[in-house]
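Agenda item 2: magnesium ion complex prediction
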Amino acid sequence: MSSLEIRDLHVAIDSKEIVKGLSLTIRSGEVHAIMGPNGTGKSTLSKAIAGHPDYTITQGDVLLDGKSILEQEPDERARAGLFLAFQYPSEIPGVSIANFLRAALQARLAEGEELDATAYYKRLYQKMDMLKIDRKFTSRSVNDGFSGGEKKRCEILQMAMLEPKFALMDETDSGLDIDALRIVSDGVNALRGPGLGILMITHYQRLLNHIVPDYVHVMYDGRIVKSGDKTLALELERRGYDWVKQELAAAAPAPATTHA
Ligand code: ADP
Ligand code: MG
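Presented output:
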């Protein structure tokens, strides 16, 4: 059983605080969804956990199995078992998916160790069969001229091959069309299991019709302001985010001063 613990995380961009004290623990086998209106810091959260250099963690910690990852480079975080979809370059013309994945797996081995080619292709084809991906797909260059759906297919295949402990998926900015939506949800559902914890960041409730989360969290103004089960996602679809804001405003103490 593994855990990914986000502890009172504060993240700033150019000294402006965007994530303002966010705590969340994900365990193996769980699927958590973070939803929230645009601009609340969802992508900032995921990029900070990935170790993006533009995002400064000013307070708090992120722990994988009790050990802080904040001093680790993005590739060390990946080797430790985190999968962060956006850490990969978007297009690598001339490098086939098969060779790219092989290099990614090779990079995880100890120095001097060689990835066994036969075992590698066996594993690749096994994963592709499980995900119902055509074999021709792996001879294409990584993301080169890919449709949104093909990019997602490539991402899911990477995830399947790397077998992470935790996958962080920020689906907000990817403009998921119906095709991509289906690929992501079928893929995630195929990979879902006791060894994998998933943090799914989205503002599309409809994605959560296909990937039914164990927990749903609403993020607003840099914090998680509400948590629940899958019914919370349905309520958000029906009522939007305004009622969450109104609840917050009602719960907040009256401001001591008014703005002039
Ligand atoms: P969400 O993913 O919830 O829509 P973001 O994390 O993308 O929200 O953005 C939160 C806030 O941080 C926004 O006000 C956005 O303008 C700002 N922001 C995000 N990334 C950057 C960046 N690289 N440089 C400057 N401001 C940024
Ligand atoms: Mg975003």
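Discussion summary: Residues 42-43, 172-173 surround magnesium ion (ligand 2) (CB under 6 Å).
Owner for follow-up: CH.
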